[in-house]
Amino acid sequence: MKKKIALLPGDGIGPEVVNEAVKCLDAIASRFGHDFEYIEAPVGAIAIDQTGNPLPESTLEVCREADAILFGSIGDPKYDDDPTAKVRPEQGLLRLRKEMQLYTNIRPVEAYPELIDQSPLKNDRIAGTDFVIYRELTGGIYFGEKWLSEDQESASDLCLYTADEIRRIGHLAFQAAEKRRKKLTLVDKANVLESSRLWRRTITELGKAYPDVQLDFLFVDNAAMQIVLNPSQFDVVLTENMFGDILSDEGSVIAGSIGLLASASVGDSTALFEPIHGSFPQAKGLNIANPVASILSAAMLLDHFNMTEEALVLRQAVSQSLKQGVVTSDLKSGSPFGTSEVGDFIADFAGDDS
Amino acid sequence: MKKKIALLPGDGIGPEVVNEAVKCLDAIASRFGHDFEYIEAPVGAIAIDQTGNPLPESTLEVCREADAILFGSIGDPKYDDDPTAKVRPEQGLLRLRKEMQLYTNIRPVEAYPELIDQSPLKNDRIAGTDFVIYRELTGGIYFGEKWLSEDQESASDLCLYTADEIRRIGHLAFQAAEKRRKKLTLVDKANVLESSRLWRRTITELGKAYPDVQLDFLFVDNAAMQIVLNPSQFDVVLTENMFGDILSDEGSVIAGSIGLLASASVGDSTALFEPIHGSFPQAKGLNIANPVASILSAAMLLDHFNMTEEALVLRQAVSQSLKQGVVTSDLKSGSPFGTSEVGDFIADFAGDDS
Ligand SMILES: [Mg+2]
Ligand SMILES: [Mg+2]
């Protein structure tokens, strides 16, 4: 299959980890006979330095023409530490999400047996955890009408949803559940909120088209407890923007391996894949950054291309690197392996069909 | 000191656990020379059975005349399992909170060394945790204007706050921090929400009157992570209604002892103290219910009366029962101690000034 992939390495360790992800994609392409074309474009601090704009029009053009976007990370202390800075690297990503209408954020949470001692949860609680959060990303209270009274003594925010907004992410979540363990949990607060009741009615109605998927419901306060108490009960979790923000961040810490977590932001015409970690400028160029989150975001990109076996092979290669201890020093102190050695190992394993 | 306490034991195990809390209050009263007068009144299912109303006017009257309310628990399967029931036991508590204008919910989260193995968190993560959440209880999105479009395809909820609503709970939270470790963390989403920015401005302004208290800020998504990653960093956490709902439920599970957790709901004229657990009708009358949450809610009631030493003595007695293993079987399977034996032990220890 022929695919055009926009590479937006960004700042800090972004270029290094994206480089390892591309190594792995190349290994997969040659093993499975695909043709991946990469077009690199600047975003973030490096784009500000070059053009004054964290998301230059030319970068947006590259993204529009690509089948998918592989993103590194953005942020640079030069801008973070300057409160008078008018443009900030982070605006590049926010505008990109908005311009490309990326309305669904997907965050897998998986407990690797090799890393279980690093989880803040007791080992028997976190063992077997493997779920994915589908968070609505462009609606709800974060984007609703804001109001401040003239005397500045009252303020409000509106949480508004339409059934159409709910249906488009709902279909993606049901489709994901069909390919996984066939369980979808809608998180809402339908006992109190009108917008949550709209979510519940709409998703219940949608569920009739997915008879194989078991649909259940959880109030958001209970969900915040269950993620700590019994995270392995979940398969696909679907929720609105703010609940998803809170729960996906809570979920990101329970597996004890934030350096391994990838995410996808999906719209109708394209999708963006990135590690959830930041740009760690202090690690830049030292060959110590963990490339696994970026490599796993490449695996999500393969899933998005419906290259299910290819994604599985790449994930198995990552597991193998953890099993054999071929990891960067954030996972095993004193490890002799750097960013590129870990990337080489995973790419070799993923590309080897013997 | 002379104080009038309304007793609302309610349903299920409520009467049994409130009975043990009263034992402890009596022991404290006799040791410190106080005079506690109790007036009992029905609420919940038992009140429906007797009067058809989960919160009879006579009960409300008792509460209005009392200095504080000691509440048990409500709920009965006879009503829960009947979807056609027009009155429900739970309405009794909701109406009571509203009628008495109880605008602040207080939830302590404390890790007892003896129970640390039962926490879902690894022992070194939970050790030393001792914080309290101040949650605004009568404003925000749960009470804001709700809207559903005529075609039922759009719905919204409004999150509205006034500075006055924020100030009254803010003062309580700062005062609590002054008596504790002098740290107050405001949880909001001020990078996105106008109402959160009102919270941040108002609390920052209020903080000038409490120069001893160190005030810091955390976004709600980060707070959801920090409660799992490093719960011992918190002292007093202050937040709005919905964030408080989510975080206090998340907080309630990390200590591994939900049967031990108490809460207070405070207004300008009175305050209500209750365990956070439910009415467990299946345990009713078996002398197996854990009375500690009810006893700790009595300790919060003593705090509310500014009986600081008395509250401390009662909490030390609870710690002693845990240390000596005088606990109900939910905490130690096969324990020979029942509800009344545990209550006796704690009351004896609290009343003993030798
Ligand atoms: Mg977040
Ligand atoms: Mg709750």
- How large is the share of residues in beta strands of chain A? 15-25%
| CATH level-four homologous superfamily name of the largest domain in chain A | Isopropylmalate Dehydrogenase
First-last Cα distance of chain A = 22 Å
In CATH, the topology of the largest domain in chain A is named Isopropylmalate Dehydrogenase
Number of helices of chain A: 13
Ligand list? magnesium ion
Taken from the alpha-carbon principal axes, the silhouette of chain A is: globular
Largest beta-sheet details of chain A: 10 strands, mixed
The overall pLDDT average of chain A reads 95
**Proportion in helices of chain A:** 40-55%
* CATH architecture classification name of the largest domain in chain A: 3-Layer(aba) Sandwich
Query: From the structure provided, what is the oligomeric state, counting identical versus distinct chains?
Result: homodimer
The first-level CATH class of the largest domain in chain A is given as Alpha Beta
The poorly predicted ranges of chain A are none
Number of discrete domains of chain A: 2
E-strand count of chain A:
12
- What spatial order of strands do you see in the largest sheet of chain A? 2-1-3-12-11-4-5-10-8-9
Q: Which structural category fits the helices and strands of chain A?
A: alpha/beta
